[in-house]
Amino acid sequence: MKVDEIINGKDLPAMDFDSIIIGGGGAGMRASLQLAESGLNIAVISKVFPTRSHTVSAQGGITCAIQSDDPDDDWRWHMFDTVKGSDYIGDQDAIEYMCNEGPKAVFELEHMGLPFSRTEDGRIYQRPFGGQSKDYGKGGQASRTCAAADRTGHSLLHTLYQANLKAGTNFLNEWFAIDLVVNSNEEITGIVAFEIESGEIFYIRSKATVLATGGAGRIYASTTNALINSGDGIGMALRAGLPVQDIEMWQFHPTGIYGVGTLVTEGCRGEGGYLINKDGERFMEQYAPITKDLASRDVVSRSMALEILEGRGCGPKGDHIELKMDHLEPGVVHQRLPGVTELCKAFAHVDPAVEPIPVVPTCHYMMGGVPTNINGQVITLKNGSDTVVSGLYAAGEVACVSVHGGNRLGGNSLLDLVVFGRATGKHIEESLKQGVDLKKSSEEDINRALKRLNNLNASKQGKQTASLKREMQENMQNNFGVFRREDLMEKGIKDLANTREEVENMYLEDKSTIFNTARVEALEMQNLFEVAEATAITANERRESRGAHARVDYPERDDNNWLKHSIYFSSTKSVLKRDVNFRPNMVKAFQPEERKY
Amino acid sequence: MSATIPLKELKPLILSVYRFDPNKDKKAYMQDIEIEVPDNKDLMVLDVLHLAKEKETSLSFRRSCAEGVCGSDGMNINGKNGLACTTPLSEAVKRNKLVLRPMPGLPVIRDLIVDMKQFFNQFEKVKPYLITKDDAPELERKQSPAEREKLDGLYECILCGCCSTACPSFWWNPDKFLGPAALLYSLRFIVDSRDQATEERLDDLDDAFSLYRCHGIMNCVSVCPKGLNPAEAISNIRKKLTNRNR
């Protein structure tokens, strides 16, 4: 059956798997590796060939207390930094699990062949990154980020693909998942998906469906994210009646290349680079006297935005900052940061060993996502209490487990995706061993998942992807950026509400079946829109400043009211609160303090 | 790349692009699309494709990272293979015309999208993963900086296919000759101090076609968007085979 027809659910051919993983990035392929090695019948469903996934763009490294740079390093110090970095709304059971399991997960990657950079004694090279400390913030800067030059994401993603090839993982490459199928018991029974090349569409049934679809940075006009980062898993979850958590928390990376958004790693500052304003002043010394340019990303991005707002930005328009590295040994720049050198030459026309790089805070990472427990099981709220959603898992950037809370530390995203991709795989393996059947679904259940495809196929007029996307991206950029305030956000929310109907009834001009990227982009646009609206409404509701969420009208953190996760359901457009976990198993919980860097 | 290009200082550019949709076209054709591009900014070829897609929504091409690390948008740009996202117009445009075709040598699925199956089949033949026989230690396997340095120039491959699809030997024998990308990848594991299957790997390459169909044409080197040198990698493998068989 082809993807251009008006389809009834009962006619859809079915494929059955023990488990399907939607997304072939780091989280998806770490989960699939676990499952392929267990001999289960699984498939990775990826809209791009797996090594094209956005994990490939991660540069600086994977943060983990492997005790290479410092034999006395301690995962508990990493945990402390991560909790503090999260502005205290990261779940401490999850952060504890990640920091403690991390070394095992990183050594496994090395055993698979990841080409880490090395120290003189042959161990994995670690570099300093923002927000890292020794001895619970009292022992100075730590060097905890394990690196493969500045191509750690590329190395990690290719290594995982290699390991999956070796394990015989079944890949459905260049397939697109339209929606989850939910039955009347609110269980996830599988997905509706099509092969992009042939246009053949299927109902793919699965005992355990994993969302590993990554982020959604393309809701903003300026982002470091790949063009494919369209929040597909978030759109699917929201349309399935499931919530998203802390979705207002978007990280703006301090160093996106001015004018294009391309990332240059925090490793540039880790290796000794620093930021200057138009007077050549190293302004981070004032905002973060101790850690300076290696304060956490939310702090650095806000400081940069303030410098620009107060008239000390660089360039003829005074609208950016400069990242200075020309004082470093050219060897350091070219050996430790070869990829950055390449990107700067291509996109900023500068050689960082010679001239400073023009940079601005740029949308980079979605701290929020589909709430899960540490096994990757998706959680929803029923009558205010946590309830596991049967048949559904999430891992990586799409998930909110939550280890990043209000602000992610550099190098923790790669760690998050391997640790929780692995944990998800392990949990599915265990639970399937105990005997799980495919769940039943009705014709209407499948039809609900086909609705937006059928709408597109029936469309005869309306707005198309490019203009809708541009409007949404400018709205988000202007009204939900580094600094936020109520009047602008309310205007943004209203504009989004006014376009919802246009997005749901958008026009697909090209209805062909073979490798029709226009259809894929239209479906992606609808997913982006769900993320944008969830972000907008939740950001306006959180009336405080915490982590990456900085409100001009509520400049203080409000622990009395908002030491909480936000939970958003799109059906009611309502924002609820969920308790943050302060119950780690092995250490005493870290209590909220004022964050100083 | 950015969603908003200032409307002033635009100049017209002719994009001449290969079109083929098996749903409706009996054969492929070149379509000329006039695109307004900013005069004051050196766009990348991928930006032009995005502008073209706004006019011709059926135009299909692959793209993902838009910064030259994912390998999606390899194509033939004014006669030379490269990545659309990192090739600036200033390098690509000749007489105000940009000519884009799919990478040669592989079957075209649609427009600029080629079927990469043969390319990936050859890649998989070199066992592109670390093979070890000893049990893994508790910590990492040690590797000295000098040993690690041997992987530089090899591990950075992004599997875009620009090299293999520029290689006449690969065009003639895409099922038997492994092609520059797969061979580069093969050497990446042969020289990895942690890998314990060097002999097997060399055995697998020791026939008339897999490796030896390389005739040193060097197209692979001139097109690699990452500045890698597959020809040198191939010659290194040859040396290892010669030394071993001596």
Secondary structure class of chain A reads alpha/beta
* SSE string of chain B, helices as H and strands as E: EEHEEHEEEHHHHHHH
Low-confidence stretches of chain B: 1-5
> By CATH's scheme, which homologous superfamily of the largest domain in chain B applies?
Alpha-helical ferredoxin
Strand content of chain B: 15-25%
Put the structure in a nutshell:
Chain A is an alpha/beta fold and 597 residues long. Helix content of chain A is 35%, strand content 21%. In chain A, the strands form six sheets. In chain A, strands 1, 2, 6, 7, 8, 9, 16 and 17 form an eight-stranded mixed β-sheet that branches.
What do these coordinates show?
The complex is a heterodimer of chains A (597) and B (246). Chain A has helices spanning 26-37, 75-85, 92-112, 152-167, 232-239, 267-270, 284-287, 297-309, 330-336, 338-347, 412-433, 443-458, 465-479, 486-504, 517-541, 559-562, and strands at residues 14-22, 42-46, 62-63, 126-133, 141-146, 171-173, 175-182, 188-195, 201-211, 244-245, 250-257, 274-276, 321-324, 357-366, 370-371, 377-382, 385-394, 399-400, 483-484, 550-551, 564-569, 574-579. Chain A has 597 residues and is α/β, with parallel strands linked by helices. In chain A, the strands form 6 sheets. In chain A, strands 1, 2, 6, 7, 8, 9, 16 and 17 form an 8-stranded mixed sheet that branches. A 4-stranded antiparallel sheet of chain A has the order 11-14-13-12, with helices on one face. In chain A, strands 3-5-4 form a 3-stranded antiparallel sheet. In chain A, helix 2 packs across helix 3 and helix 13 (465-479) packs antiparallel against helix 14 (486-504). Chain A starts with 13 loop residues before the first strand and ends in an 18-residue tail after the last strand. The mean pLDDT of chain A is 97. Chain B is an alpha+beta fold. Chain B folds into 2 domains: 2-114, Beta-grasp domain (Ubiquitin-like (UB roll)), CATH 3.10.20; 117-245, Fumarate Reductase Iron-sulfur Protein, Chain B, domain 2 (Orthogonal Bundle). Chain B has 9 helices and 7 strands; from the N terminus they run ββαββαβββααααααα. Chain B has helices spanning 45-55, 89-92, 117-125, 145-149, 168-172, 179-190, 198-205, 219-223, 230-245; strands at 10-19, 29-38, 74-77, 80-83, 97-101, 108-110, 113-114. In chain B, the strands form 2 sheets. Chain B has a 5-stranded mixed sheet, with helices on one face. A two-stranded antiparallel ribbon of chain B has the order 6-7. In chain B, helix 6 (179-190) packs across helix 9. The longest helix of chain B is centred in the C-terminal third of the chain and has 16 residues, at 230-245. Chain B is elongated. Chain B starts with 9 loop residues before the first strand and ends with a helix. Classes of the chains: A alpha/beta (597), B alpha+beta (246). The interface between A and B is large, with 65 and 60 residues.
